[in-house]
């Protein structure tokens, strides 16, 4: 199989267009690896069921999820729709954080942020204390934009 890539990184199969170039061996190997295959000893091997590949895909998915953002409005809507918690209730719970520095920093973010990243500290132990699982929080960030 001949793979080709043009200046916009679009993979073209078959006869190359004038602006396309043939992939290097390294590019071709990376292309196959992204779809669960690897070139081993000159042959394409299915690696999609290997523990290493599955673990790598899970890491990539977690990195993608951790980089997600959600607007403050959509976050509050999603939390209200999933648990019935109002912004006032959440703020009250933040005010109960024992460590003064953590509490003040959390309140500054809560009161002033326009958007939140999934990896923000509030979505760790604090979210768990409100009864949210890691999966619940991931779902809010993945689906939060639909609540707008």
Task: Please outline the helices and strands.
Elements lengths: L2 E3 L5 E3 L7 E2 L2 H10 L2 E4 L2 E4 L4 H16 L2 E3 H12 L3 H8 L5 H13 L2 E3 L7 H5 L4 H10 L5
Antiparallel strand pairs: 1-2, 1-3, 4-5, 6-7
The total strand number stands at 7
What share of residues are in beta strands?
5-15%
Average pLDDT, to the nearest integer? 79
Number of helices: 7
The radius of gyration over CA amounts to: 22 Å
Q: Report the uncertain regions.
A: 4-8, 10-17
The N- and C-terminal alpha carbons lie at a distance of 45 Å
Number of domains: 2
Residue share in helices?
40-55%
| Major beta sheet, strand line-up | 2-1-3
Question: Which structural class is indicated by helix and strand composition?
Answer: alpha+beta
Describe the biggest sheet? 3 strands, antiparallel
Note the overall shape.
Answer: elongated
- SSE series: EEEHEEHEHHHEHH
Question: What report would you give on this structure?
Answer:
With 148 residues, the protein is of the alpha+beta class. It folds into 2 domains: 3-48, no CATH class; 64-147, no CATH class. It has 7 helices and 7 strands. It has helices spanning 25-34, 51-66, 72-83, 87-94, 100-112, 125-129, 134-143, and strands spanning 3-5, 11-13, 21-22, 37-40, 43-46, 69-71, 115-117. The strands form 3 sheets. It has a 3-stranded antiparallel sheet with strand order 2-1-3, with no helix packed on it. A hairpin with a 5-residue loop joins β1 and β2 (11-13). The protein starts with a strand and ends in a 5-residue tail after the last helix.
